[in-house]
């Protein structure tokens, strides 16, 4: 068994310990590309040269001739020197399967130290071309060889992104779990002061001695009312989920890669669920629900100072003071040019299409926004996929351009040479309070479309022969229908977030929201003479707003949090369905690292399966007095198999939020069913909505300051 090197709490590429020796070697080779460099000695044993000798791997230059001045000293394998010093980059050795010369030249034009963003069209388009090369490679060995050559000379962020997308979408590389390929990826998740403290402790401590620091959510003081939600917005697992989803569902690239089953609808629903959850977190902390960023001409009330250091060029991520205005963006350095007026025009055209019930393709032909495919068509238009939008030039890219308008608002024309802020990248965007206001604005397009649809009929809601009598949650040691949340801790390996590789165990202890494990107990009767295959759907929603006012069903609708969805075969007669919370198809387990950093026994690697809401975040925080919520279950008349394991790898999958790798989405119903459409006239409470195959109960979610 090969000992995996320094897994970054799901922030590095994890090599599978299963498989043959060749596969393991390929995985380790890819891992090594993103290791920190070793700390240089005072007198290096190998001369540092601008161009390596002929025999050096991938080199084309010659050693200095006798009598010539020695070459200029520079660190080995640091190709950024080639880009910053003006020297000509060294082309990679020709491989059996290699990138086209035209693409190679285009990649070299993208500065090695420039930040990369998949929200920027030119960046995404260039990455898409590289992804296409990786996707057509004959196997992992060829990809590893290409990546090894390119890692020395092209933009590291672009390479990391392209390699991650390709690995996630190739069926022959399922033994590799992609969570992050960046050399210093941890700097996108851990504030600079903490990494600096760890580096200092390593520098000043005994060689090899373990170092542990306590990480705090220190991006603001408590005088900022939004800071009480930093535990949610800045959580590593939450941000990794968002980053990973956008890798699984890129909006740019070949059509075969981008055109996944119902990806536009899933773009809507994944973000819609994030908003539902965030709103309940706000309620748990005594705040109002998210206020939509409804007017792009109004100032952004919230400021945000991420305290993150950039992984490239020794920069910090730009901050945004409170009350900044969005203005026209003209960033020639990154080919991002658009007007705020464009956002308004695209919004007007989207609402016009929703009212009309159709969009227009490039030829002017109407494409109906019907109840089956309309949400998917809209999703691809709103996100702004040039590949899948039916009319990209007309409807634009309101989601992506909105992200970049906010990300560049501190320096929209580049006069101060500042790069984009955290809203410009999927791995960091959820840290910023404006993310949720912007996505509430985006979500309104989908809600407006859904409101044009007719309520579900009784035949669509009922399940013949099935009667559900009750549902409750049981948490061992507590009374029924009572969920407990608390602060938990995990230790993150900081080893690869440091400037130089360390022999010591270096960790940061993070605090995160957690909950006591629980299970659902559902009682249902099957009155048919034979077994009935169906789908069980479980949601929760708050009963009241922050002032204690009871929420009617229409106000609860956007706050419905999907907790689980699974297939079940009901035998004739009475059934007692017991379902453990850890089996939720919304969540994924989260990797932990133990390299002597824990007192308790923890396996060296607990596999994180990729896209999915972190399991420890399944339950909202609640309040110390107890947050009253409605628990809802529906057993629907569906024969679909809701996958809980990947058919190829056998790993747990969060199919509700992320679908299945290169397969059909495992639920034919609309995402969010039965709460995605308006309710029939007169149905104003959840109880009035119930049909015989549904049940509800009242639960309490209570936060306790200490772990029970």
Question: Which features does this protein show?
Answer:
20 helices; seven-stranded mixed sheet; di-copper center containing domain from catechol oxidase; three-stranded antiparallel sheet; alpha+beta; 708 residues
Strands of the widest sheet, in order across it, are 1-8-7-16-15-10-11
Assembly state (oligomeric): single chain
CATH superfamily of the domain at 220-450: Di-copper center containing domain from catechol oxidase
> What is the number of beta strands?
16
Q: How does CATH name the architecture of the domain at 220-450?
A: Orthogonal Bundle
As a whole number of angstroms, the C-alpha radius of gyration is 26 Å
Helix content: 25-40%
Question: What structural class do the secondary elements suggest?
Answer: alpha+beta
Q: What are the low-pLDDT stretches, counting only 5+ consecutive residues below 50?
A: 1-22, 40-86, 180-184, 592-609
What is the typical, i.e. mean, pLDDT? 83
Tell me the overall shape.
globular
Main sheet properties: 7 strands, mixed
Please work out how many helical segments DSSP would assign: 20
Proportion of residues in extended strands? 15-25%
For the record, give the distance between the C-alpha atoms at the N and C termini, rounded to a whole number.
Answer: 37 Å
CATH first level of the domain at 220-450: which class?
Mainly Alpha
Question: In short, what is this structure?
Answer:
By secondary structure, the chain is of the alpha+beta class. Helices cover 28% and strands 15% of the residues. Strand 4 (358-360) and strand 5 (366-368) form a beta hairpin.
């Amino acid at each position: 068994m090969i000992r995996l090197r320094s897994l970054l709490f799901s922030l590095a590429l994890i090599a599978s310990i299963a498989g043959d020796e060749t596969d393991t070697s390929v995985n380790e080779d890819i891992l090594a590309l993103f290791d920190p460099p070793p700390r240089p000695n005072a007198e290096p044993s190998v001369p540092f040269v601008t161009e390596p000798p002929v025999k050096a791997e991938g080199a084309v230059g010659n050693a200095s001739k006798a009598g010539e001045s020695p070459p200029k000293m520079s660190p080995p394998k640091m190709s950024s020197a080639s880009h910053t010093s003006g020297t000509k980059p060294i082309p990679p050795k020709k491989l059996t399967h290699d990138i086209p010369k035209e693409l190679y030249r285009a990649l070299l034009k993208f500065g090695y130290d420039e930040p990369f963003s998949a929200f920027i069209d030119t960046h995404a388009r260039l990455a898409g071309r590289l992804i296409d090369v990786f996707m057509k490679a004959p196997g992992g060995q060829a990809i590893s060889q290409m990546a090894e050559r390119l890692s020395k000379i092209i933009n590291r962020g672009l390479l990391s992104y392209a390699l991650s997308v390709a690995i996630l979408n190739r069926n022959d590389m399922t033994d590799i779990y992609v969570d992050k390929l960046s050399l210093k990826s941890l700097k996108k998740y851990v504030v600079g002061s903490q990494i600096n403290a760890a580096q200092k402790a390593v520098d000043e401590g005994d060689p090899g001695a373990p170092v542990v620091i306590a990480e705090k959510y220190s991006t603001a003081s408590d005088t900022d009312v939004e800071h009480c939600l930093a535990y949610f917005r800045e959580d590593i697992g939450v941000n990794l989920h968002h980053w990973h989803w956008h890798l699984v569902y890129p909006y740019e690239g070949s059509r075969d890669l981008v055109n996944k089953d119902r990806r536009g609808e899933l773009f809507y629903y994944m973000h819609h669920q994030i908003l539902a959850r965030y709103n309940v977190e706000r309620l748990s902390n005594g705040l109002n629900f998210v206020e939509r960023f409804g007017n792009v001409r109004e100032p952004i009330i919230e400021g945000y100072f991420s305290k993150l250091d950039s992984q490239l060029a020794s920069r910090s991520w730009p901050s945004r003071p409170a009350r900044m205005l969005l203005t026209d963006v003209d960033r020639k350095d990154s080919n991002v040019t658009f007007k705020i007026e464009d956002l308004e025009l695209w919004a007007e055209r989207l609402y016009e299409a929703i009212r009309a019930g159709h969009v227009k393709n490039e030829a002017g032909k109407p494409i109906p926004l019907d109840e089956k495919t309309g949400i998917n068509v809209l999703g691809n238009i709103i996100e702004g996929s040039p590949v899948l939008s039916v009319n990209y030039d007309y409807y634009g890219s309101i989601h992506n351009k909105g992200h970049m308008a906010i990300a560049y608002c501190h320096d929209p024309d580049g006069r101060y040479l500042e790069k984009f802020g955290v809203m410009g990248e999927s791995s960091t965007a959820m840290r910023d309070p404006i993310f949720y206001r912007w996505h509430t604005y985006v979500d309104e397009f989908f809600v407006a479309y859904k409101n044009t649809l007719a309520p579900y009929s009784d035949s669509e809601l009922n399940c013949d022969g099935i009667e559900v009598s009750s549902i409750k949650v049981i948490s061992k040691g507590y009374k029924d229908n009572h969920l407990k949340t608390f602060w938990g801790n995990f230790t993150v390996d900081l080893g690869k977030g440091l400037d130089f590789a360390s022999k010591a165990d270096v960790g940061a202890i993070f605090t995160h929201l957690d909950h006591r494990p629980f299970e659902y107990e559902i009682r249902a009767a099957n009155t048919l003479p034979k077994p009935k295959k169906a789908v069980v759907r479980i949601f929760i929603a708050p009963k009241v707003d922050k002032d204690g006012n009871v929420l009617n069903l229409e106000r609860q609708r956007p706050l419905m949090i999907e907790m689980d969805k699974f297939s079940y075969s009901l035998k004739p007669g009475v059934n007692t369905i017991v379902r453990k919370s850890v089996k939720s198809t919304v969540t994924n387990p989260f990797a932990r690292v133990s390299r002597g950093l824990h007192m308790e026994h923890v396996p060296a690697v607990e596999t994180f399966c990729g896209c999915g809401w972190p399991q420890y975040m399944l339950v909202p925080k609640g309040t110390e007095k107890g947050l009253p919520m409605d628990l809802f279950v529906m057993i629907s008349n569906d024969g679909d198999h809701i996958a809980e394991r990947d058919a190829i790898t056998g790993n747990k999958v969060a199919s509700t939020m992320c679908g299945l790798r290169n397969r059909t989405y495992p639920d034919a119903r609309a995402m969010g069913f039965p709460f995605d459409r308006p309710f029939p006239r007169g149905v104003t409470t959840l109880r009035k909505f119930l049909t015989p195959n549904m049940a509800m109960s009242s639960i309490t979610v209570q936060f306790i300051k200490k772990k029970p």
